[in-house]
Automatic annotation (TrEMBL):
CDD domains: Tryp_SPc
Signal peptide positions on this chain: 1-23
Protein's name according to its UniProt entry: Peptidase S1 domain-containing protein
InterPro entries: Peptidase_S1_PA (IPR009003), Peptidase_S1_PA_chymotrypsin (IPR043504), Peptidase_S1A (IPR001314), Ser/Thr_Proteases_Immune/Dev (IPR051487), Trypsin_dom (IPR001254)
Any one Gene Ontology molecular-function term assigned to this protein's record: serine-type endopeptidase activity
Source domain of life: Eukaryota
Key word Disulfide bond present: yes
Keyword entries, A-Z: Disulfide bond, Signal
Length: 267
């Protein structure tokens, strides 16, 4: 990696990680247990073995987890464990899984205030056993259309009230709205067709991801056959979370179906 890009990444990581393992989403409430069986809690450590932060991911099948590319760096040793079937962080999860392989999209890169191609796949050492609280997410199909009229949700472990540092041990959920590309591009000039915005145009209700806690978590939208994972939480506005026109930016899953299917089918 060139020196300039490395410095940009370090600056961005510093701004995102300044508060260690604190969480990242304003608003929402307790999710009913079992409502999001595809959600995974990723416990991550530094190269020295110190527990530094966490992020989220989603179950693709019995062997593969999908998350964002920022924290992966293709190094499975960074992941101490995958918490599967987690509802309350201070209580046992259904399973704790070890990581065998991490594959970050080879075109992942840092932009001025975010990331491009921010997606990674994680292969587990042992296959998962599915249950009521552990199940794969559904992926988008060619004819699925999602826009501001779609019912969409995010879920993870974050603040219950609008005060930084007050993390919830119980799984939270929040309904958000997809924002049109034109409006989002006005805030994020680097937005590509492989990304989308979601949140509340009124401000104060979206995944700020500052500091990171649920980076890599799924954006789920309802279809006639159930919820589909439309996005992966990538980054946020560098400005105040509570102001209008400040949205969460998500990697658009459908744009990476070839990358996903290559590994989960043949990897």
């Amino acid at each position: 990696m060139a020196v300039g890009k490395l410095l940009a990444l370090l600056v961005l990581l510093q701004s995102l990680m300044g508060a260690g393992v604190r969480s990242s989403i304003i608003g929402g409430g307790d999710a009913p247990k079992g409502r999001w069986p595809g959600l995974v809690y990723l416990d991550i450590k530094t190269d020295s073995g110190e527990r530094k932060w966490h992020c989220s991911g989603s179950i693709l099948n019995q062997k593969w987890i999908m998350t964002a590319g920022l924290f992966s760096n293709n190094r499975p040793q960074l992941y101490t464990s995958m918490w599967i079937g987690t509802y309350e962080l201070d209580k046992p999860s259904e399973r704790y899984m070890e990581v065998n392989l991490v594959v970050r999209n080879p075109e992942f890169r840092v932009t001025g205030n975010g990331f491009i191609n921010d997606i990674a796949l994680i292969k587990l050492k042992e296959p998962l056993e599915f249950s009521k609280n552990v199940a794969p997410v559904n992926l988008p199909k060619d004819d699925d259309i999602f826009d501001s009229s779609s019912e969409c949700w995010i879920a993870g472990w974050w603040e219950k009230i609008n005060v930084w540092g007050e993390k919830s041990n119980t799984l939270q959920e929040m309904e958000v709205r997809i924002v049109g590309q034109t409006r989002c591009e006005a805030t994020f000039p680097d937005l590509s067709d492989n990304m989308l915005c979601a949140g509340s145009p009124a401000g104060g209700k979206y995944c700020c991801n500052h500091p990171p806690g649920d980076h890599g978590g799924p954006l789920m939208c309802r279809t006639a056959s159930g919820f589909v994972q439309v996005g992966i939480m990538s980054f946020h506005s560098p400005d105040d979370c509570h102001t209008p026109d400040r949205f969460g930016i998500y990697t658009q899953v459908f744009s990476y179906m070839d990358f996903i299917m290559t590994y989960i089918m043949f990897g």
